[in-house]
Amino acid sequence: MGAMRHRTRISGSDARRPPTARSVLGLFTAGTAAALALAAVGGYVALRSVALDEAKRDTRTKVQEAGKLVESALAEGILTGDPDAIGAVDDLVLTRVLSGSVVRVKLWSADGRVLYSDDPAQIGGRFTLGDDQRRLLREGGAEVEVSSLDRPENALDRQQGELIEAYTPIRTPSGTPVLFELYERFDSVTASARRLLAALAPPILGAIALILIIQVPLVWSLGRRLQRGHEEREALLSGAVAASNRERRRIASYLHDGPVQDIAGVAYALAPLAENAAVQGDASEAEELRGAIDQLRHNVRDLRTLLVDLHPPNLAVEGLEAALADLVGPLEARGVSVSLTVDDADRLLDFAQQALVYRAAQEAVRNVIAYADASSVRVELVFDNGVARLVVADDGRGFGPETRAERAAEGHLGLSLLAELAQQSGARLDVYSRPGEGTRVELEAPLR
Ligand SMILES: Nc1ncnc2c1ncn2[C@@H]1O[C@H](COP(=O)(O)OP(=O)(O)OP(=O)(O)O)[C@@H](O)[C@H]1O
Ligand SMILES: [Mg+2]
């Protein structure tokens, strides 16, 4: 004990059964839908970034042009808060710079003072300029970025939603650099990404629809073919099983009516001859005849055992319990201790299931005789929760999965065929074994 039990399992619900045409189609459709969703989200993100780059380029041009314009109206007094100077800039900004998308314009001094804003409340405010802005003032050029609205200088612009902000330095008439700043609404970027996507959607969706129209029937017919192939295989197998049963029955009935009767008859006819020889004192002939009779009777016994093997006893008449008892007879004859328990509800199984239980027990017992070298065997048929369970357990040498695989490769498929048969009847066969620890074969059949 202690070690985990290895388990060789052949179950009724394994991967042998192919998916149905419907589930193949479902999977295909779900996959397509997922790919479509991914393409839509990815496309939106990609297009938005393209649109953002575009918008940044536009804004850069815009800030430089507007900067030049404002520079032309700039008076020296702007540096000292002269209302006239502010008014001149304000006129220009209100009439020519502010527009639908440009929502804010500011002028900054190099030391971070707001010299002008189209919102008068902001004028005179003071913030520390960032490295970028200071560099712009020194080196010129233009800078565009997406506003981080939580920066203190943007406190008053927060209600605008996301913004793009752009800077460029301009100069007062005396040459003092001031920073011109412009805020543009960002939602135009999102809107233009959506527009692009909307323009691209019809051809893409059309192409996908076309692919679906072509592939759905293809997938459906592939699924159907797979299913039909499987059904055919099952029909073939059960046909083969039925044919082999018929053949066994034919051979069994031939043996039963022909050779078995004949040999039994010959043995019967020889008996008086042996008696006679004994009476007449011909001891050696009597001995010889008795030997022959024994031999013949022995053969008849062997043939009858073979008959049971070839053609299962008539379960309907004899009942499963009696048939199972016959089955374990040879084990007992070999000196193996056998415990047989059959729940008397065995009549609850329909005939096909009784035959299945019998065949499973037969294969398991044959294996015990052939390989297990067991000293005791337990055969049990119990019912619980609407399930009939047959157990054949021995304490013999057991085996590992590789033994099974090797034997199967050589065409010895006893357990595998049985598992397949069980599966077809809606039952399940499990084989638990491990070298040195015996073998347990379990068949579970739900009552119908
Ligand atoms: N009770 C058992 N004890 C020990 N080994 C077993 C037992 N049952 C099966 N085996 C091993 O598993 C192998 C596979 O068994 P299976 O019944 O599938 O095929 P087989 O008996 O070899 O051939 P077939 O049943 O087709 O005549 C056997 O060859 C044997 O090595
Ligand atoms: Mg076998």
Describe how the helices and strands are arranged:
Blueprint: E1 8-9, H1 21-72, H2 83-97, E2 102-108, E3 114-117, H3 131-139, E4 143-146, E5 163-171, E6 177-185, H4 187-279, H5 283-310, H6 315-318, H7 320-333, E7 337-342, H8 351-372, E8 376-384, E9 387-394, H9 401-409, H10 414-424, E10 428-433, E11 439-446
Parallel strand pairs: 7-8
Antiparallel strand pairs: 1-10, 2-3, 2-6, 4-5, 5-6, 8-9, 9-11, 10-11
The structure holds adenosine-5'-triphosphate (ATP) and magnesium ion.
What does the average pLDDT come to? Answer: 85
What is the H/E string? EHHEEHEEEHHHHEHEEHHEE
Structural class: alpha+beta
Shape: rod-shaped
Q: Determine the strand fraction and express it as a percent band.
A: 15-25%
Bound molecules: adenosine-5'-triphosphate, magnesium ion
Radius of gyration: 47 Å
User: In the CATH scheme, what's the topology name of one domain?
Assistant: Beta-Lactamase
Describe the structure.
With 448 residues, this protein is of the alpha+beta class. Among the domains are: 163 residues, PAS domain (Beta-Lactamase, 2-Layer Sandwich), CATH 3.30.450; 128 residues, Heat Shock Protein 90 (2-Layer Sandwich). 57% of the residues lie in helices and 16% in strands. It has 10 helices and 11 strands. Strand 8 and strand 9 form a beta hairpin. Helix 1 packs antiparallel against helix 4, helix 7 runs parallel beside helix 8 and helix 8 runs antiparallel to helix 10. The protein is rod-shaped and about 160 Å long. Bound molecules: adenosine-5'-triphosphate and magnesium ion. The site of magnesium ion (MG) has 4 residues, from helix 8.
